[in-house]
Amino acid sequence: MPDLRELYQEVILDHNRRPRNYHEIAGATRKSEGFNPLCGDRLTLYVALDGEVIREASFVGSGCAISKASASLLTEAVKGKTLAQAHEMLERFHHMVTLAPDKTEDFSDLGKLAVLAGVREFPVRVKCASLAWHTLKAALDVPGEAVTTE
Q1: Going by fewer Cβ within 10 Å, which terminus of the chain is more open, N or C?
Q2: Collapsed DSSP state (helix, strand, coil) of residue 34
Q3: Domain span including residue 16
Q4: Is residue 117 part of a domain?
């Protein structure tokens, strides 16, 4: 059986090479831009709400494999979630990637997002994994730049 770290690396590399939901959303309800000046990662996150439910989420941008994989996994994870559930997921994800490397905690409730738990062992990479999540928070907390279609 392959090492768990190898499996996690494969998932991250797959989401980097073939990011899910990598496109703009025409008629997005919310849009927010994120930038990590330490490494140059940059993304724009789009969210389409149906009331309090995230109907669709997508992103465009450029960055390292961890940044792009995190954004791809995020967009898959938040679809169909309420705003409250997305905020809870954001807090749980942040806790996971910032937990001290020598601490153990079960993050299986985060599903595929748990593959990014290993970044906590590399503090400089935490910002890469968190960029999309901070951008989502900005989009949900402050509508940011509302996108209108004509």
Answers
A1: C
A2: strand
A3: 4-141
A4: yes
Supply the DSSP symbol for 111.
G
Has residue 111 been placed in a domain? yes
Q: Does any domain span residue 56?
A: yes
User: How buried is 58 (Cβ within 10 angstroms: 0-12 exposed, 13-18 middle, 19+ buried)?
Assistant: buried
* Number of domain units in the chain: 1
- Give the separation between CA 125 and CA 97, rounded to whole angstroms: 9
Read off the pLDDT of residues 65-108 as tens digits, 9 standing for 90 and up: 999 999 999 999 999 999 999 999 999 999 999 988 778 888 88
Q: Are 62 and 81 contacting, i.e. CB atoms less than 8 angstroms apart? A: no
Element holding 45 (H helix, E strand): strand 41-50
Q: Give 7-25 pLDDT, tens digit per residue.
A: 568 888 899 899 999 999 9
Q: How far apart are CA 107 and CA 124, in angstroms?
A: 21
Dihedral sign computed on CA atoms, order 21, 26, 29, 31: positive
In a domain, 86, yes or no: yes
Q: What's at 67, amino acid-wise?
A: S
What backbone phi and psi angles, to 5 degrees, belong to 35? -145, 135
Q: In what order do the strands lie in the sheet with 30-36?
A: 30-36, 41-50, 53-62
